[in-house]
């Protein structure tokens, strides 16, 4: 109990927001570019294509747009793998030979790095008709609104996580982001200033990522904060000012749908970095 | 419109005059009833009377029976001719529209011959078959089992052989006719009463019984051996409803096992009746099944409408009622039934929540509707049951799931709290069982009732006095009800989940605590249940299994199973732990 209250006092001395407008523009541009690449790959997808082919294509698209490094390698999950069904080990996140079929949902996830600026996006889609997918994709809007509302109110991140869980239960879905390593719904994104070689990955994460992340994982808890956002004790702190990649991943039966985008958290405000994204446009059109 | 049968109209079948009886408005869909051996059209009296209200009902005495002609030669009783008779009657009574055939026993055998003719669909819109298989299908059924003599196949073969002793007897020269003439015909009423459970009625059996029975022996002799030994391939595109009789002494259910091979559009239903009591005691039930099937084929909406949707799943065509379906185990159970093909009638106190469950169920392909019902309110539950029955038909499965949690010692628990816990947890189940159980028993098609008890039913705790008492009552209620309902072919299961991660903990009340303390306690217990992490979906799986396998008591989680075991072998240990301050 004493450590927890100590953490809370620490968080009152929150760091100031580390980015200026120019930085935010660079992050926004890269996020736009990532979604554009994912959407192009999504349009190209069709029955018979494998996860490996999709992930490789996504990587080629990003590299051809000037991406130099990856926060993590591009992922593609098809069918019930979009809801991480039957996942036992982290190795199962990597693309497989699973082929797309008519009616299948899919998720593309990539995190390119350019000049140390990082984007981390999730793009969900389906081949042909899938009413369950439509329903979840429609409902995801509530999660996007809930998250920014509660972060803006500066609720502890663990509580926001619990609110998301409560909404998931109310909807009758299940929480699939708890399958991610650390059960995270999001993680902090900083400007990477590593000198390690670009393009080298270890266990799917860029070498530079691991260096930066490793440093933060050690230093941040000393200030009662944690760069990974989950539901446990370590996330019982007010939202740290900075950029957070937030990825609610919702499942129902064999369908999983997610979005992932950057949330801007300042000392007294919170907003999504960009509203001009495929899932947001879809909601606007559906209104 | 006439509802009583008129005097017979004579129609010439394949060279034989047939006595045809018509009832009801000829402009309505025609239902053609074909009787078996040794009956006449009279065996349909109850069914016809019920159907005549909204159908044009036609029955006829088949050749060799009642007022129809009695050809002398055995070859005149071949199935081709009997089928030709059927088409002749259909052409005469409904020249412009195909008819809906309903047939029993030998009537069903000869109607199969008609239905499996390549041009059948032109004249026959649907076929309801009761206890009479296609002989060609049986021939293939036997061959398949002889060529793959697995223990199960052999058991099925021997089982049907034991049912078919009389067929052999009918092939013995002189003996069968003599038996009918010298005694059996006179005692047939007694046989029906004692063996078949048919209560005597004036005019039954018919005065012509001895002649009908003797003449009809040629049905067996002309057709059985040729068809069983040299079966032809007889598929059909006509939609078929097969009514399986659970207490049939002559036709075993296994015979229909391969039927999907021949009939792509097949609907199976079961009726708890013997070979003859189906028509003579449960005529209105058979009439209702025919009415629903005919209405569906005529394109009218019916409770059975979703049955024909493909692909077939274990609970396709079944209607399940789930109370407290807005969250937790209730919602998970509803979704599991939806996924397995069942249609749903759902209720909860929270209408938004249960509507959400219905919406998700529809996404899984179910036809689902939701109601706001307080299960502790008897008249409300009765009204709910009546509405469900009127709108969707009588349910096949009822899951009495709604319940609340309460924690507190006996001395702390107020009378009001006792009232509330017993009202919901016990009376809710009683109301559900009574309202739906009555409907299910009346319908006579069997079904299943599932009551949600709890591990607390056999796991005493000083902190759960009211809750455990209510759940123990549910467990005993289920056991008693199971004994009573078995007579109606209705199974009853009690489910004892244990610690399952649902929102019951968030609404659990605690005696002797103020609001803030209650909230803190709810949070603590919810956290404990969440850490246990047993999902309601796994309970739902067990509930479906309990229904399929008709299990009496189902402890679900490890702790529930362990407690049940200990409660039997070391109840003293549980009485000791009951003193602990847990819960």
TrEMBL record, chain A:
Domain Peptidase M24, first and last residues per copy: 26-267
Pfam families assigned to the protein according to its UniProt record, in alphabetical order: Peptidase_M24
Taxonomic superkingdom: Bacteria
UniProt cross-references to SUPFAM superfamilies, sorted A to Z: Creatinase/aminopeptidase (SSF55920)
Protein's UniProt name: M24 family metallopeptidase
Automatic annotation (TrEMBL), chain B:
Similarity field: Belongs to the short-chain dehydrogenases/reductases (SDR) family.
Organism of derivation: Actinocorallia libanotica
Name of this protein: SDR family oxidoreductase
Alphabetized Pfam families for the sequence: Abhydrolase_1, adh_short
Taxonomic superkingdom: Bacteria
Span of domain AB hydrolase-1: 29-279
Protein's UniProt keywords contain Iron: no
Keyword entries, A-Z: Oxidoreductase
């Amino acid at each position: 109990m004493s450590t927890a209250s100590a953490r809370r006092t620490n968080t009152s001395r929150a760091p100031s927001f580390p980015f200026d407008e120019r930085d935010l523009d660079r992050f926004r541009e890269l996020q736009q570019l990532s979604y554009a690449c994912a959407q192009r790959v999504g349009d190209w997808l069709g029955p018979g294509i494998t996860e490996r082919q999709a992930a490789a294509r996504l990587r080629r698209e990003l590299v051809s747009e000037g991406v130099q490094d990856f926060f993590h390698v591009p992922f593609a999950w098809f069918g019930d793998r979009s809801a991480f069904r039957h996942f036992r080990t982290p190795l199962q996140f990597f693309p497989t030979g699973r082929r797309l079929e008519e009616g299948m949902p899919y998720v593309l996830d990539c995190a390119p790095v350019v000049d140390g600026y990082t984007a981390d996006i999730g793009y969900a889609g389906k081949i042909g008709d899938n009413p369950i997918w439509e329903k979840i994709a429609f409902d995801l809007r509530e999660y996007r609104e809930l998250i920014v509302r509660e972060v803006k109110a500066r609720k502890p991140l663990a509580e926001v996580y619990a609110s998301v869980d409560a909404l998931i239960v109310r909807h009758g879905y299940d929480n699939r982001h708890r399958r991610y390593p650390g059960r995270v719904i999001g993680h902090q994104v900083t400007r990477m200033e590593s000198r390690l070689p670009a393009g080298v990955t270890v266990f799917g994460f860029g070498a530079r990522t691991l260096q930066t992340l490793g440093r933060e994982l050690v230093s941040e808890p000393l200030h009662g904060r944690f760069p990974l956002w989950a539901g446990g004790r370590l996330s019982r702190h007010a939202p740290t000012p900075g950029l957070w990649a937030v990825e609610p991943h919702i499942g129902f039966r064999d369908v999983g749908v997610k979005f992932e985008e950057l949330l801007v958290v300042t000392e007294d405000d919170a907003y999504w970095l960009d509203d001009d994204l495929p899932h947001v446009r879809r909601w606007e059109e559906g209104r | 419109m006439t509802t009583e049968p008129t005097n017979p109209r004579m129609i010439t079948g394949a060279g034989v005059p047939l006595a045809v009886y018509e009832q009801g408005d000829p402009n309505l869909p025609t239902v053609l009833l074909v009787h078996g051996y040794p009956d006449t059209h009279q065996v349909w009296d109850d069914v016809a009377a019920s159907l005549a209200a909204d159908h044009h009902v036609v029955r006829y005495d088949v050749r060799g029976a009642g007022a129809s002609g009695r050809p002398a030669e055995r070859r005149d009783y071949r199935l081709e001719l009997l089928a030709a008779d059927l088409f002749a009657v259909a052409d005469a009574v409904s020249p412009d529209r195909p008819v809906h055939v309903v047939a029993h026993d030998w009537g069903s055998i000869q109607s199969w011959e008609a239905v499996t003719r390549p041009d059948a669909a032109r004249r026959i819109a649907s076929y309801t078959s009761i206890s009479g298989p296609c002989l060609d299908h049986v021939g293939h059924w036997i061959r398949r089992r002889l060529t793959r003599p697995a223990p199960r196949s052999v058991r099925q073969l021997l089982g049907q052989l034991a049912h078919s002793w009389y067929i052999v007897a009918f092939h013995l020269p002189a003996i069968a006719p003599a038996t009918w003439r010298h005694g059996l015909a006179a005692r047939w009423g007694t046989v029906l009463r004692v063996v078949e459970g048919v209560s005597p009625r004036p005019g039954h059996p018919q005065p012509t019984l001895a002649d009908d029975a003797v003449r009809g022996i040629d049905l067996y002799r002309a057709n059985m051996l040729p068809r069983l030994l040299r079966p032809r391939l007889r598929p059909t595109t006509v939609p078929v409803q097969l009514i399986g009789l659970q207490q049939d002494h002559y036709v075993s259910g296994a015979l229909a096992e391969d039927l999907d091979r021949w009939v792509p559009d097949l609907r199976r239903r079961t009726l708890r009746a013997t070979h003859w009591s189906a028509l003579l005691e449960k005529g209105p039930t058979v009439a209702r099944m025919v009415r629903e099937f005919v209405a569906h084929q005529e394109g009218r909406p019916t409770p059975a409408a979703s049955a024909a949707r493909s692909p077939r799943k274990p609970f396709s065509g079944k209607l399940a009622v789930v109370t407290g379906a807005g969250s937790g185990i209730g919602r998970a159970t509803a979704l599991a039934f939806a996924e397995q093909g069942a249609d749903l009638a759902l209720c909860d106190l929270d209408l938004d929540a249960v509507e959400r469950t219905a919406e998700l169920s529809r996404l899984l392909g179910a036809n689902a509707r939701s109601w706001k019902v307080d299960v502790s309110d008897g008249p409300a539950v009765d009204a709910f049951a009546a509405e469900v029955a009127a709108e969707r038909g009588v349910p096949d499965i009822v899951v009495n799931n709604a319940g609340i949690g309460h924690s507190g010692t006996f001395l702390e628990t107020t009378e009001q709290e006792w009232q509330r816990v017993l009202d919901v947890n016990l009376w809710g189940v009683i109301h559900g069982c009574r309202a739906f159980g009555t409907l299910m028993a009346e319908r006579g098609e069997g079904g299943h009732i599932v009551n949600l008890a709890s591990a607390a039913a056999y796991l005493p705790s000083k902190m759960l006095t009211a809750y455990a008492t209510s759940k123990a009552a549910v467990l005993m209620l289920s056991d008693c009800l199971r004994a009573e309902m078995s007579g109606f072919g209705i199974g009853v299961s009690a489910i004892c989940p244990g610690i399952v991660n649902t929102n019951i903990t968030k609404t659990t009340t605690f005696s002797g605590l103020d609001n803030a303390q209650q909230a803190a306690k709810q949070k603590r217990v919810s956290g404990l249940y969440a850490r246990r992490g047993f999902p309601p979906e796994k309970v739902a799986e067990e509930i479906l299994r309990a229904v399929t396998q008709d299990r009496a008591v189902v402890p679900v989680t490890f702790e529930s199973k362990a407690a049940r075991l200990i409660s039997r072998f070391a109840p003293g240990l549980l009485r000791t732990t009951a003193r602990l301050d847990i819960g």
